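Hi P.,

Sorry for the delay on this. The queue was packed all week, but I finally got your sequence through. Input first:
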Amino acid sequence: MLPSAVLSSAARPTLPAGRQLAVTWGIPEEFGGMTAAMLHRSRALASIAGASVDIVTFDPAPDASRTRQRLQEAGELLPEMQLRNVFEDLRSVGRPAIGVPVEPRAARRPHDEEESGPDGNVRRWRRGDDVLRVEHRRSDGSLALLDDRGAGSSSERLLTAFDETGATTGQWDAASALYFEWLDGLTGGEPAVAIVDSKAVARLMQRYRRPGVTLIYVVHGSHLAGQDPSRLDETRRGVFENLHRWDAVVLQTERQRTDVINLLGDSGNLEVVPNPLTVPPTIRRLPPDRLHGVIVSRLSALKRIDHALRIVAAVRDMGLPVTLDIVGDGRQRSRLEREAARLGLGHAVRFLGYAADGPERFADAPWTLLTSRSEGGSLALLEAMGTGCLPIAYDIRYGPEVIETGRNGWRVPDGDMNAAARALAEACVLDDDRIAAMRRGAHRTALVRDDESVVARWAAVQRRSRARHEREPETDALLHRVRVRRLRGRYVVTAIVTAPHPASAAVEVRLRTRDRAPQRTRMRSLGRLRFARLSDEASAALGDGPVRARFAVTLPDDIVVIDAGSRHPDRRTLTRRLVDRARRTVGAG
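Then the structure:
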């Protein structure tokens, strides 16, 4: 990466005017590819495009100051970058005292658990798996925020902020209302570009629509259930069925963009920008040990590191004494260590744990293995190629499509460990000139994704996104929580009329597919809820694929048409939906 002093203002890519926000849930101590990519992109935008970037987080852990110090010491934060956390600001930023509509309730018993950090502590009251009450306290013990979640599932949530003297400074009936007010304060009504990396935070941020804020969602993983291009991953449904709400949705590869369009239709805002890389200008001609490889990966079931172990064992059985370092940690580590021992790899494979400089280990390795079930673009794959480390990769969605077998690596059928073992054996015995040529090919593949090239692409995407934002009316603010389901063969559509629009507003829905006649019906009312269940005949006429939903909302002086985008009908039962929602909630916490 070039330092900002090297680039003249004339040479810098031009970003839209305003602040740059990088929005994620938090920065864990041992972070993976998504967080690394977000921080790298933010540094590139700061150093190459001259942007000031706020890293915006919602993690309630009382340790934002320690996280900031850790990132600064590791070189992850440049002077042009700030780490901002909503709960840190509530503890430290002065707010005027105000009266609140509802008097907060005092705790009736001691708390069940406490999480302490340099910024204070968080106390939680539980009943079983349910969190009933949360207190965010400052380091001096004063209460900064009370999050009262009621005594049961039907009770309303109430969040109340306090200053150091105990005076109330704000109150909200939902966490999103608090978060959005805080974001409004950060931007101050001025133009801003908010880039969202976390899929959990994307479900929140897709509802943050402000005239001056351009919203961009970066997809870091596969949107598919398994490798099936006809099935949407349920954890992504809430966002991918609302892609039209974003000013841009950035995918890592053209193949994923094509798959999104084939599954959900073209929302008109899909962009392709790979993660930026710091690629060395040159690489060594040959690695010191042709038989020693490196994997840098989170140790999760998704990564299928057990396949890599079996591939190494198979090559050793061929008489090639290959060895492997695995850099990374995760829930699967103990199981993988046992599997390595079972395969007789105790002295051939080393589990080195998490290392902040993990990607730098590729420079001394001739090869790496990518055995994941799915990827969003595989930052580790391209980091390896940037150093000349040759990948042997399963041909999965998405990322390995950059590999041309025999030119810059090897791509083998997904799950075919025998083919991967043959490719690895070939990598170990090829003559020096051939390996050197392939390493140069891998390096060239990564160079087109270096920081300068990717920042130029980001500048173009942001300009198009800003123009799209200014062009599109905010009509979808009339309705929210739009759902399209197919239960017992019939389409069911629900939506909620957003306050302050009249609850009496009449709504008509029209569903259509690419090659079938549209079906329309008047939606019934229950307060602000609107619902419709299409007949068996109308549902059969639409078929089983994705449908495009449009609504006509009749207001006292106007009829507003809302295009809610393409929807892949949710076929889960109510019980299944509740279980999935509970899992997402636990994951986000």
